Amino acid sequence: MLDTLDAAAVRRWCADGLAALKRHQTEIDRLNVYPVPDGDTGTNMVLTLTSAQQALAMDLDTLPDGEVTPHGHALRLMARGALLGARGNSGVILSQILRGLADAAGAEPVVRGHALTSALRDATAAAYRAVARPVEGTLLSVVAAAAAGAERAETDDLCAVAAAAAEEAAVALARTPEQLPALARAGVVDAGGRGLCLLLDALVEVVTGERPARSTPAPRAAARPATAVRETGSDQYDYEVQFLLDADPEAVDRLRDALDALGDSLVIVGDGVAGTGTWNVHVHVNDVGAAIEAGVVAGRPHGISVTRFADQSAPMVPATTDQSAATAPATAGRSAVVVAPGAGIAELFRGEGATVVPGNPSTGELLDAIRASGAARVVVLPNDANTEAVASAAAKEAHRLGVKVSVVPTRSPVQALAALAVRDPGRRFEDDVIAMAEAAGACRYAEVCHASREALTVAGPCQPGDVLALVEGEVHLIGVDLVDTCVAMVDRMLGGGGELVTLISGADAPDGLVDAVRAHVGRRWPFVEVQAYPGGQPHYPLLVGVE
């Protein structure tokens, strides 16, 4: 049993936590709200913590400088490695939790029970301050419960505090389906919360020498909620505004109040630098000008993007200001970095002159691609909702290196193709980004896959092996025959208008699938042009774009 959490214990915790995540990787991957075959929270957390362990291993003999304690140095290495290796939303959030622990515990001369309690409390408070209206039933609830359990222990005994935190986190995890309707509908607990519980149990084992006896949590019977939580916030707000901000904490506090009064889904996350640091600001509003003006009052905003939500064709209109020009490198080159989930898609993007990164990249991989491009201005097309957070983290890191990066929030490769088709190096970079974002937003996207498990979707119940047609990320159709479902999905999309259909076949697409869909469009929609490409993407036999 350990009295304090020293640097050696931090390294063992990282190694044991990674081993635990690997043992339960498949289980966590299956805790997916949608019954699609690419649930990868467990995989993303494993890859994120693998990067953290590699960062620790590379600096094994490095001694901390100045007033940094050995355990603080180890925690910061772990957090920094996690940030650069972060994959998906779960990986990015995990890296932020580790950074919060490192900032708080690393400042303590020794880490006993009270110090660990304080670190968990401070990390949780920072997370809640970053999110204006937190949604319960997520990883946020689980880390908050861990901090509350540590406080209730009321002891300086490190072992007792770690055990109490892990126990309360497990209880909170089992409660997540009661708090989030999407989890209840899917009959699962929160995947990211499950991963955090494993890490807390690993910490208990490191400090006590005993592994907690804990079974896999099972949610209560899944209820059928009348409504589901809207992931993008209230539908009364029409615009998403995002920007990076160089400002001091006091100004950010005032900005938080100002933006909170304008809209919802407010998230402000800092880089942890003392004094004037860089903050990532996100909010949904109706008055875009007021939101940006509030940023100007608070400090120096840059990398501004504005997205307009719409029911069908949603023009996404990022814009940037010239206020960051002083930090841009002298060179004037520009490039595009695009995430490609398949070999065929990668070739399409390379043909458009883009730098290609394989699917599900880490922050570090995207940052490497940005730097390798040698350009002073780079646009990143993530092509997946889960990769957007990773792209934003990479953009923030690139900004510190003097590279101006704009992330166009593409959700599918078909949107990226539309964006790259209108790229014009003769235009001002800011205008080019706007044109690319407008083209991406005007392209409605869909994908077809086979259900990986039984679930209740908004289109009704599905069974393993059923064909699911997802339009704009939501299940719209459930079928038995792949061709029939694809045809019905394209008809539904073209019913809202369209002049061009793009079809990208996956690695598992049967022979004749694309030809059958193309022939149907020719008969039913004779004035619609069809373009088809072999994509090679896994899980999804067909990706569809309608412009």
UniProtKB/TrEMBL annotation:
Q: Which Gene3D superfamilies match?
A: 1.25.40.340
Q: Which SMART domains match?
A: Dak1_2, Dak2
Q: Which Pfam families match?
A: Dak2, FakA-like_C, FakA-like_M
**All copies of domain DhaL, residue ranges:** 8-205
PROSITE patterns attached to this UniProt entry: DHAL
Task: List the PANTHER family hit by this protein, alphabetically.
Answer: DEGV DOMAIN-CONTAINING PROTEIN DR_1986-RELATED (PTHR33434), PHOSPHATASE PROTEIN (PTHR33434:SF4)
The record, for NCBIfam families, names: YloV
**Protein's recorded name:** DAK2 domain-containing protein
Q: Which organism is it from?
A: Micromonospora musae
